[in-house]
Amino acid sequence: MNSTHGSTGISAALWSEETWAAEWNCSARKVHQLRKHPQFPVDATVVLGPRAVRFRVERLAHFAAILAQETPPSEPRQLLAGKAAKAQRVARADEQTSS
Asked: What pTM was estimated for this model as a whole?
């Protein structure tokens, strides 16, 4: 991906925040959260000006691989308890209908 857009010389390998959010199918808020992640590559951010921040696509791909290897967060205790209670209710209902 060494192509450039027109005569501006802006590399196609740089994404804006909006492009990153669209490509990853997430919100701008999630992009901000991801930038604060402890594994976020420091060299992924390119500051072109005070309000022009871009992100290196290849570093974001590396970051995505890191995120994919992380264990997903467990569900809250209340949700797990509710699922267990529902499974018990379903099991009891199945027993009553089969007898």
From this structure: 0.60
